[in-house]
Predict the 3D structure of the following.
Amino acid sequence: MGKIFCILITGLTLLYIGMTNVLAVRLLLINGAGATFPYPIYSKWFYEYAKIDETVNFNYQSIGSGGGIRQITEKTVDFGATDGPMTDEQLNKAGGEMFHIPMVAGAVVLTYNLPDVRANNHSPLRFSPDVVADIFMGKIKKWNDQKIARDNPGVNLPDKKIVVVHRSDGSGTTYIFVDYLSEISGVWKSKVGKGTSINWPVGLGGKGNEGVTGLVKQTPGSIGYVELAYAVKNKLPYGDIKNSAGNFITPSLESVTRALDAKVDTMPSDFRVSLVNPPGKDAYPVAGLTWILVYKNQNDKAKGEKIVRFLNWAVTDGQKYAPELLYAPLPDSLVKKIEKKISEIQVR
């Protein structure tokens, strides 16, 4: 009886050890942090990829592009994420060669809280580039300003103060938006400039796309900039913006794709490119790529291999999930270049 009991205990111990080993394999955790702009698509990808590879879990902190760049530079995460490419100075501080891997393209939209205008079926509003710059510079202070009225004939604009809402954290969404403002306004470029974090002339700050969305929703007369999916999800209106061809363009999957198509052939080998104010009569002017940041040399073999496999999946099969979340998938010609770059990642 004692012998049988010992065999039983031994068997249970081995079973426990075996199950522990399986769980250990399954719980290989890959940590990432950064941009809120792609958070909806990244969440979808991590969920779907877990069905394909049950040995890996992704933990992603949506803290803004500035935080993503900082954490990957400090090597406290396995990958970073940004919508504003790292500068040469930031790359030099990274302590190793950093790759920018494009994932999808998306739109930054102007969203506003004007219930009376919406009720009168005058949505979306239209904005010329000079109007956008003047609003965020604090030069246009009222919704019934003649410049806004010029873009929106027949709309009964309210005599209401404009409340500007912007990001308070280091943000790639901010980078895309102020990159656009610097492109279309010499005054903005010289007085404010561009970056993931800037000194705003006016306005209230909200953390993340979520924070800006929340402030706009609760503040009548407000206007802010968010990634398209956040405006749609929260049922906020968003404006048409006049592009470089002089056409007012609605942010959409199609108009962002046109913006991306305009830059594919001239994209540099490191993929650090701006999509704002592109040529093309149907291109949306405030669009941008979002990148995952990874070191070329991966010192953790197990994690490095998993990251490489995930990246290859995301830029190919994973692209089918982009349209439903209002991101523009990468064109095949660009995917081939990205796959080549991913193949250069060294896993030790």
